[in-house]
Amino acid sequence: xxxxxxxxxxxxxxxxxxxxxxxxxxxxxxxxxxxxxxxxxxxxxxxxxxxxxxxxxxxxxxxxxxxxxxxxxxxxxxxxxxxxxxxxxxxxxxxxxxxx
Amino acid sequence: xxxxxxxxxxxxxxxxxxxxxxxxxxxxxxxxxxxxxxxxxxxxxxxxxxxxxxxxxxxxxxxxxxxxxxxxxxxxxxxxxxxxxxxxxxxxxxxxxxxxxxxxxxxxxxxxxxxxxxxxxxxxxxxxxxxxxxxxxxxxxxxxxxxxxxxxxxxxxxxxxxxxxxx
Lengths: 100, 167
Prior knowledge:
The complex is a heterodimer of chains A (100) and B (167).
Chain A: H1 4-24, H2 28-53, H3 57-87
Helix pairs in contact in A: 1-2, 2-3
Chain B: H1 2-22, H2 26-46, H3 50-75, H4 89-109, H5 121-127, H6 129-137, H7 142-163
Helix pairs in contact in B: 1-2, 2-3
């Protein structure tokens, strides 16, 4: 019997994997993909709780998370192309202009 | 039977999520990420949310991931990953492990509870998931829905402005 805890633990594992990726990788696009992984982990826990509680609101929230992720993908990748045009690289170490 | 399928999918999701994080080439990471998205869509079907599974495939695997792969190939990043060294892997491992451990304890010590709604699996099977989503989206969540459309418009304009050579 699959309980709600199975889904929540899986979601926690995926979220921490995404965190690990964001903290260790240097390529900005891979960091972006890791953020997508974290968003998906949160979506999984939203949908499992929504299904467990018999309430539609969690799934509507997933809908909006997907909207924001799509907007983020468009703007973020445009930013990376603009960076690449200036610096010939998208390693995050080269983005240190604002670092104090 | 369902629990075996769950564990099989969970193993695939965790392995492909790990590959997203560890692959050297960004294209390989993107392919592994697609595997993760498809497996998550399977989970959504198991959770009686077929519409969510469909838009997971269409929006994430179809649109966002294609955009990422196009950008990787446009920038020709496959050759530019040779630089060595990384941020402190040890601290990142410790932090990620702590987050996983903490969530595990919180999840296992507590029990999710609350006022249970009326959306059961039988109702989803009878009325249809899309209709239930639409009913909720266009009544209770009409204002956020409209705001989301404006957000998407702003994102389109922003992407065009950022990528254009001289505005």
